[in-house]
Write a structure and sequence with these properties.
Blueprint: E1 3-9, E2 13-20, E3 25-32, E4 44-45, H1 47-65, E5 72-79, E6 85-87, E7 97-98, H2 106-116, H3 118-125, H4 134-144, H5 146-149, E8 154-156, H6 158-167, E9 171-173, H7 174-177, E10 183-184, E11 189-190, H8 192-198, E12 207-209, E13 214-217, H9 220-226, E14 233-235, E15 238-239, H10 240-247, E16 254-260, E17 264-270, E18 282-285, E19 292-298, H11 301-312, H12 314-323, H13 327-336, E20 346-348, E21 366-368, H14 376-400, E22 405-411, H15 418-428, E23 432-435, H16 441-452, H17 459-466, E24 469-473, H18 480-506
Parallel strand pairs: 1-5, 5-14, 5-15, 9-12, 16-22, 22-23
Antiparallel strand pairs: 1-2, 2-3, 4-7, 6-8, 10-11, 13-14, 16-17, 17-19, 18-19, 20-21, 23-24
Helix pairs in contact: 1-6, 2-4, 10-16, 11-12, 11-14, 12-13, 13-14, 14-15, 16-17
């Protein structure tokens, strides 16, 4: 039996999972680490924390499993995207990594937009200039920490720093590199034009691979430390969402997934590159060679339900303790007792502004149609429906771009709610499924390493062999048209309030 290791370097911790070639979990270990916020809007992490967590979780799964090191055929790494790791010529980390959720780069983004133009940026990188992405962070260091910038010899993403620790290779792969705003996304290579405008040395950036290609091999010192064989392959791996796509089998046209975590993501695979000229959704290279994915983001998805729970559901929290169940289970049951449309109450989930489709940081949450007859349970149902309408907005943009979304997986905390899955099935008007494995990105990069090791001949073949469907929620023919009426009204509310949101922000 062949075994592979999937490492997922997240924001709260790194999780390492040892799988067999059928995708069965043999052993798993997570180690957490802190995030540093030296100023409001700043977010940083220490790359040494990621490296220590990876090394110790790999050692732990090897020790737990008792699997022979000769049987471990490869390693794949998934990671939080956009983080900036800078090394000097001796490979010392020059400063803490500025990570994905850091918002300090507003001036740099304005400069990039002015210098290159939004249209040109979208044409090359498939996205407008964004504060969270890597290029703006590099420019921030150049503008604010010149003494650090002059020592830079290498620039890596979080997971690619971990690859360097394992293999001593400077490399990246297309899915994660797409989030740097330095990659020519249609042609899957660094953009000489942008590197020239931004005055970033191309030699600082790693070689770009496809996600399932072998990028390096374990060094002897690393192999001895980890209890693995020298020369064990390390493949390209993937950015977190691209890794989750492979882990849920989203690797062919028509396939997509919806994640309801703090934010919500709708992610679709496409073998033809498709770029939204308005920049409402992100287009990136997929972890499948010569394919792309399109991603819409709703900022306040699970966050809306958590906000409602924390402020209005103390009774449910107490009852859940006595019953030994999750409070979200009780909240689901309450919302279930209310009809579609929450007795004519609608909710806009814009607690944190909105990305897809409005790109409006001033947008805010709204209950629309509130009357004296409404109780907490109607508000609860309206929150869940409002998040579902917002996710349908993402799907509508995909449809405008001629991207077929007919096979939908659901994941994340919200994906475990049968009620939420039924709302999505009715609003998308297609079946919504869950995968039997909950390992997402770690399984995805493990599958990529199986392809790199020759266990499977292609990424779709690996997905077909390993990824299994657990539950299937079919759309309900009776409720689909009811939701449609409420969704069309929901779509009219934001345009009517757009100017008022801007006025509110100035008060």
């Amino acid at each position: 039996m062949a075994y592979v290791i999937g490492v997922d370097c997240g924001t709260s911790g790194t999780k390492t999972v040892l799988f067999d070639e059928k995708g069965t979990v043999i052993a798993s270990k997570t180690i957490e680490y802190p995030m540093y916020q030296p100023k409001n809007g700043y977010a940083e992490q220490d790359p040494a924390d990621w490296a220590n967590a990876m090394v110790n979780t790999i050692k732990a799964v090897m020790a737990q499993s008792g699997v022979k090191k000769e049987d471990v055929k490869g390693i794949g790494i998934s990671g939080q995207m956009h983080g900036l790791v800078m090394l000097d010529k001796d490979n010392n980390v020059l400063r803490k990594s500025i990570i994905w959720c850091d918002q300090r780069t507003e001036k740099e983004v304005a400069w990039m937009t002015e210098k290159v133009g939004t249209e040109k940026l979208i044409q090359i990188t498939a996205n407008p200039a964004l504060t969270g992405w890597t290029a703006a962070k590099i420019l921030w260091v150049k503008n604010n920490e010149p003494e650090v910038y002059e020592k830079v010899a290498h620039i890596l993403l979080p997971k690619d720093y971990l690859r360097f620790v394992l293999t001593h290779e400077y490399a990246t792969e297309v899915s994660d590199a797409s989030g740097m705003q330095l990659l020519d996304v249609p042609n899957r290579k660094w953009s000489d034009e942008l590197l020239s405008v931004f005055e970033i040395d191309k030699n600082w950036l790693g070689k770009v691979y496809e996600s399932c290609e072998v990028t390096g091999k374990l060094t002897k010192a690393m192999a001895d430390d980890l209890g693995l064989c020298e020369g064990t392959i390390v493949v390209g791996g993937a950015g977190d969402n691209a890794g989750a796509a492979i882990g849920t089998g989203v690797c062919e046209d028509g396939k997509a997934f919806t994640t309801i975590g703090t934010s919500g993501v709708v992610f679709a695979h496409t073998s033809n590159i498709s770029i939204d000229p308005k920049g409402r959704v992100h287009t990136c290279c997929a972890a499948v060679p010569n394919s792309w994915h399109v991603m819409g983001v709703t900022q306040g998805a699970g966050l809306s339900l958590k906000w409602f729970r924390d402020n209005f559901c103390n009774a449910e929290k107490e009852t859940a303790k006595y019953m030994g169940v999750d409070e979200y289970y009780l909240m689901d049951k309450q919302a279930e007792s209310v009809p579609v449309g929450a007795n004519r109450l609608l909710y806009l989930p814009y607690l944190m502004g909105e990305r897809t489709p409005h790109l409006d940081p001033n947008a805010r949450g709204v209950f629309f149609g509130l009357s004296a007859m409404h109780t907490k349970k109607e508000m609860l149902r309206a929150v869940m429906e409002g998040v579902s309408y917002s996710l349908r907005d993402c799907v509508e943009v995909f449809r405008e771009m001629n991207i077929n979304v007919s096979d939908m997986m659901a994941c994340g905390g919200g994906g475990s709610s049968p009620l939420w899955r039924s709302m999505l099935a009715d609003l998308y008007n297609c079946p919504v499924k869950t995968a039997s494995s909950k390992e997402g990105p770690a399984l995805g990069v493990a599958l990529l390493s199986m392809v790199g090791a020759g266990v499977y001949s292609s990424v779709p073949e690996a997905c077909k062999a390993v990824v299994r469907t657990d539950k299937v929620q079919e759309p309900n023919a009776a409720t689909v048209p009811k939701y449609e009426k409420f969704y069309q009204l929901y779509r009219d509310i934001y345009p009517a309030l757009k100017n008022e949101f801007a006025k509110l922000a100035k008060l």
